Amino acid sequence: MQSLEPPPPPPYDIIILGASGFTGKYVVREALKFLNSPSSSLKSLALAGRDPSKLTRTLQWAAHPSQPPPIAILTADTSDPPSLHRLCSHTKLILNCVGPFRLFGDPVVAACVRSGCDYLDISGEPEFMERMEAKYHEQAVETGSLVVSACGFDSVPAEMGLMFNSRQWIAPAVPNRVEAYLSLESDKRIVGNFGTYESAVLGMANAQKLQELRRSRPKRARPAIPGPPPPKGSIIESQKKIGLWAVKLPSADSIVVRRTLSILRENPHGLPGINESPEQIEKREAFWSTVKPAHFGVKLGSKSLLGIFRFITVGMFIGLFSGTTLGRWLLLKFPSVFSVGWFKKKGPSEEEVKSASFKMWFVGHGFSDNSLLSRGNVKPDTEIITRVTGPEIGYLTTPIILVQCALIVLCQRENLPKGGVFPPGIVFGSTDLQQRLQENGISFDVVSRSALPSYPV
Ligand SMILES: NC(=O)c1ccc[n+]([C@@H]2O[C@H](COP(=O)([O-])OP(=O)(O)OC[C@H]3O[C@@H](n4cnc5c(N)ncnc54)[C@H](OP(=O)(O)O)[C@@H]3O)[C@@H](O)[C@H]2O)c1
């Protein structure tokens, strides 16, 4: 006779995989703040990776100046599937910090999906994310594994920031387009670690794979956006209202946001949770009824035109060189040279991390009254500017976001979809993520609302 006893819970709430990496160690430091604190759902944590002695040093660094807490160190390698299956059987949730994800992510997602364990990562690689969705979504729905990539600076500020802007448009007002302008600031140098640079170079080198993948899949529903498509605009733009020069940023953000808006089109009330209370269902539906889709793009801003030319130079180097084996070798061998000092093999110093911050401005254009649109082709007559600000993007903001998403998975699992591969906005948008980010140093503000001169076209 079969036992009716439910299986015992796994020993760890969370396992951080790739904890010894540059970003991983900051994720460990952030997670320790919440381990066993009275109101936290994080009661047990383990670190995993290839090299136990490196992981032990990571734990010492992350706990400093306190004594490291007694945390399990587990050995796992993404090229060794049984080691990943062991991890999955020991935890509710894996936080994956092993990148580039296009090289190392697939076996980790596969192991989680097979075992029904939940998975979050900090990937900023659109082709990886869409490939995981194509390959594992159906199976993840069945096994109850929730798989969410891009739970870092890529792409939560963009997702939550767009929603925050779009919710400021109170009916009958509607947004038409929101342009995000990212400004990175520091008293010292702005530096990123090699891992992010390598992921960007390999992403650019394989850009056509994303197009091939999309062509091989059924077309997604397009969000229904009121009004005309946005104008093309110039390559370099001067945004006087926020005091920035800006150039288009080919980041993952706009792709991830578009995936969330497409899923919202297919599920206008958001994604139902496993076991929501009637109040929770009402809250979720009320939230999503206030999110209005808009065309969305991201630009990188700088106070000086010279800064913009530096961005363009780096973009041109990566664009030109990443297409050939020799070019990629040069880019990866000399990161500092080809990124004009923005990426270093050893990453930024702690001082450089501490002194950096970001501002992401969301400039929304739309219509004061939806009914204006029925009068024919009119231009937006209203502008709403909002802003998301926070500390350094890669090693402070990313860990804050990843850990808060993880805590939501631990304590609000009943309100989240049973399983599936999703972008972060559609999973966490209607939870208390924004409030949690605000409590942890990432703020959301309304900057201005103004009327624009409107002309019939
Ligand atoms: N979303 C965002 O905004 C954001 C921010 C920061 C970083 N990231 C992404 O995070 C990723 C990591 O970046 P990083 O700078 O932290 O890189 P990193 O310092 O090179 O760290 C990579 C980690 O992966 C581990 N690893 C490599 N191969 C492995 C394998 N076969 N099995 C198990 N572990 C393996 C490494 O372990 P060892 O220590 O044993 O070598 C290390 O712990 C990149 O893809 C980057 O783009 C995203």
TrEMBL record:
SUPFAM superfamilies: NAD(P)-binding Rossmann-fold domains. Residues 14-148 form the Saccharopine dehydrogenase NADP binding domain. It comes from the Eukaryota. It holds the Pfam family Sacchrp_dh_NADP. Coiled coil: none annotated. InterPro entries: NAD(P)-bd_dom_sf, Saccharopine_DH-like_oxidrdct, Sacchrp_dh_NADP-bd. Belongs to the saccharopine dehydrogenase family. This is Saccharopine dehydrogenase NADP binding domain-containing protein. It comes from Xanthoceras sorbifolium.
